[in-house]
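Regression check, pyridoxal-5'-phosphate case 430:
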Amino acid sequence: MRTSEESREGALSAKYYGASYEALESQDPEVAAMLISELERERNGLQLIASENFTSPAVLAALGSTLSNKYAEGYPGKRYYGGCEEVDKVEELAIARAKELFGADHANLQPHSGASANIAVYQAFTKPGDTVLAMSLPHGGHLTHGSKVNFSGKWFNVESYGVRQDTELIDYDELRDLAVKHKPKMICSGATAYPSLIDFKRVREICDEVGAIMWVDAAHFIGLVAGKAIPSPVPYADVVSFTTHKVLRGPRGGMILAKAEHGAAIDKAVFPGMQGGPIMSAVAAKAVALKECLQPSYQRYAKDVISNAQALAAGLVDEGMRAVSGGTQTHLALIDVQALGVTGKESDERCGSAGITLNKNSIPFDPQPPSITSGIRVGSPSVTTQGMGVGEMRTIASLIARAIKEPTAAAKISGEVKELCRRFPVYPEN
Ligand SMILES: *Cc1c(COP(=O)(O)O)cnc(C)c1O
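Current build output:
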């Protein structure tokens, strides 16, 4: 039997607790080499995918821990297996931190991902065949908001609202008209590629008028809410679902906040409705991330994420591109590249060859199909975590423009990207 001090020393030397790179390398050098290559990829290129971030080493430690071994179906104090004393404490702490951070009545941290969280939301408030109103996919909505290839579009009647063609902002008049016409059980706000803020008060009024549940899918922007950089949907919404790995900077996973009266329905929908046992290592990592979000340094981070996204968008506009909806109020910008005579797909590929990872993205009323698109989406969460600021965003805008305009210079641009990234190392203590 080891004393707890011996266990701690063992943990610190990473011999038998949690993540031990040495153990992996000696047992499975093939996979170990791939992990190292991925770390190098993250270090040597610019990561501008708006839904990605770099978690802290503390979050990674919790993720790679022995909590992964424990089955804990159920909730703290009401488990279906024995031996849950320690994981109960972890989940209770995580729930308490989530409620404190967001001022929420109820929190469920068990969903394995954002899509899983959304399955639970549908299950808590609707039956197959019910009508739901959500943001149209070509205007920025997510797969789980009614795509025909997703459960949401197959099992539910999802009606869609979009943005106005002139402003490229959500058309709340259309949203209200559609709500009155279709009488949806639930109205979803939230998107994957919408650079502006959402008027939650207005959405609440529409929900009240037609008696719909107000569901906010906050996957993209919840980190900005956590950092108090943009208004929160929590006071307005019946239920808020989100991922924990985007701006929020936690482990890959999902979470749901709800008003007190919906807490039991949400918990039942997550387990046993949608999942079996929770991934307790991920729940612990969510607790670690939530503590980070409660620090003043995270609030500074969230504000910097927005000023960086704005500087990046402005820089791309100076290079002859167009920012959809006139710019950004969040962590991401949607950029129309048509004026450069290229498609989104070509821009994405050319930037990739130059060491800049971003994604092609449909713009509202896009003349191109989703496999080609006329736009790119760029996000600032990762580069801001690295410590880059507004000056670097200007440099990045010019690197993106050169990568798109001069595809033959990809190798040279890639060298400059590496040089920039070397000045802002990812996981520098490793
Ligand atoms: C990312 C995202 C999701 C899905 O999250 P996964 O963890 O990839 O399943 C759901 N909704 C929105 C709006 C998102 O942006």
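Comparison notes: The chain has two domains: 66-293, 302-423. The chain has a mean pLDDT of 95. No diff flagged against the previous build.
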